[in-house]
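Please predict the structure of the following assembly.
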Amino acid sequence: MTDLVIIGGGPAGMSAAIAAYESGIRDILILERDSRLGGILGQCIHNGFGLHRFGEELTGPEYAWRYEEKVRAMNIPFKLGTMVLDINENKVITATNEDDGIFQIEAKAIILAMGCRERSKGALNIAGTRPAGIYSAGTAQKFVNIEGYMPGKNVVILGSGDIGLIMARRMTLEGAKVHAVCELMPYSGGLARNIEQCLNDFGIPLKLSHTVVEIHGKERLEGVTIAKVDENRRPIAETREYIPCDTLLLSVGLIPENELSKSAGVALDRVTSGAIVDQDRQTNIEGVYACGNVLHVHDLVDYVSEEAEIAGKSAAAYIKGEKCDAVSVDIKTDGRIRYTVPQKITQDKDISVYFRVSDVFRNVTVAVYKNGEKVFSKKRPKVAPGEMESIKLSKNIFAGASELEFRLEQN
Amino acid sequence: MYDVAIIGAGVVGGMITRELSRYNLRIVLLEKENDVAMGATKANSAIVHAGFDAKEGSLKAKLNVRGSEMMELVANELGVKYKRNGSLVIGFGDDDRETIKVLYERGIKNGVRDLAILDQEELRRLEPNIGKNATCALHAPTGAIICPYELTVASIGNAMDNGAELKLNFPVTAIERNNGAYEITSVNKTITAKYIVNAAGVYSDAIARMVGDDSFTVHPRRGEYILLDKECGNLVSHTIFRTPSKMGKGILVSPTVDGNLLTGPTSVDIEDKSDRSTTAGGFAHVIKETAENVEGVPFGKTITSFCGLRAVGSTGDFIITSPLRGFVNAAGIESPGLSAAPAIAEYIVDILRESGLALHENKDFNPIRRPMHHFIEASIEEKNEIIAKDRTYGKIVCRCETVTEGEILEAIRTNPKPRDLDGVKRRTRAQMGRCQGGFCSPRIVELLARELGIAYEDVTKFGGKSRLNYGRTKGDK
């Protein structure tokens, strides 16, 4: 029996491990499927990480090293090249690696920190051929930054997620020509600073309300047909335009990787595709926690670390049998606020609530209602789907409530 | 000099090659692509039909029923996944009920076992998610599912292990008859063979013309499919067909042997034999009709979509003929070609025997091939024994389908050896899951480059000009 097993040694897993260690837990094991710690940060060689946490602009590997250094200093055990195959309802984990073969570990507490994957081209049903030269932005990033190979020279990018924006700049710096970034929605899903620094600074056009409608080329990609879409996101035939290119990169969304969570019986939120959690990031299964991009897709890694610390501390408290008074409060949203994490409150203590909005809104107030009465409000000049928002709530706000409603109100 | 050259390494060519490898013959299988199973075999409905579709007395009917009966044994010998899940032809009203009766009668005449006509209640009991307007069905318990490229890879691998040769990237450009043998020319190579079997799929008419046979033509008919996540594989257990109409057989919904849900195909005659592009209209058609057949198919869980080309012959039946001595056509093998393939192979070998090919049994012939999926199906104890001997079986490369490095290396080293990324995919399922190779393809490129002894940037997706990379980045030059 191991006190705490953490699935995933990326920023979430490492941060959770350190927080649990600092809360007095020593019997910890991190299982990481890659050959090193750090997760996807290892291939994110651009800077901009850590502004909130460290007040510095670090690269991805530098940010990851800040945590790996601590994990190593604390002698927190980890197994690399280790893939978890199954987690059952009794918190028994089955995993495999080259040294141990297939093995099982029973855990008192588990923290799920498996991260997310990119939505693939297959999921989009784009008409046309299936040539070489179509990659998700993250795969292209691995080819360029880790393997040192150029996946293409003439590039079109579909989707303006952050990895797509980062790769627009990266491919340009490596000598490729990025012809356009097409975004289906009338706004970008990426961070404003990335649009500025990765597209505008390099003169790369961002075509909002545009999509790729056809793929051309039998062996290697030869071009794509793009088109503007109407308000129902249907392509407008008259706006079809052919762009010759040898590479199409896709940055069309990230999906939390919750296959293991499902095998353990963790209940998922249909909006986030991650677990439904309480303020401690505990799932519906006692002693099973989730944090980082497996819980919901974050915009900044700084918030991943912050959230993972909550999960790590809470798992430690659970292992030690510490508890606050129980409450039962569900958090509802109005749709303009798409979701919140946590989705419920189970203990009587001050909490942070993270959320995302469904569209770009200006001059709004984030309002929290209890029994029809506004109990909290915070003004925001602009909110956008690409940027995560958060508020802190003190416990007296939800005292005696069974439900809180989060609304986005126009000023 | 070869005794027999088979042109086309699809399921028909593959099964014929394997059937011939039972005898002491020098056999060569010629394929224009960089891998086997690259034509119609790669993209079809993956169904072993029971045999009630084809008109009684036709070759299609005879070889379908026989092939369907042979398939389970063949699949077992070759270590290929096969599941007799049964099929249902569902009807929406009185006209369909009449057609279903005709199919039932025809099936009985064709020798299909255990057919039954079900009413709405019986249908719903078998398939709770069936479309609510479906009122009746023809139930064929002998219908089955199989993976067509897995079967083809295995049959060719087995034939090679028994001595057959495979030549890839060998597009046949000319055939000359010379001194009682055939000279078969590709771009700048020529081989000779006493006998030829033409199993060149949509190109089989062009091959026949090379020896002066213009008695038939073959044209491509596009079929578009949408494949869904394994999460949806249990939505139906049978293969669900619609009642055929003037518009064709319609859209089917079926589980696959690997646990996905397959929907399609469309049916559109086209001109270009190399045009495997999908269309927006095709997707819309598949999605609309699927919704009528089965309730709640979540197309948001789409894994991929693809298009296959059926090789439609001009006679309406399979074209299995010998227009001149020593040359046999296996052409126009459209549906139920996959189901019939083992029987077609037997039939072709009989024709070759009758036309003078001496068949002496190969005493060393081994019909058994180790399943590609032997590792994934082993118990934990067995797996640990394998990992103890070869640690690469402990290392997962493809996370979505949990494929180990050991399995990928084993596939790369097993006949017929894959030479490209898609070849590894079809043999191991690595890159075939939810992320479609997003995480694992760079690692597989690395393994392929190492094993094939070629440069990283020379690894292709599927041969030819389908290169994946354009050389080193600036810093690495």
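The first helix of chain B runs from residue 11 to 20. The mean pLDDT of chain B is 96.
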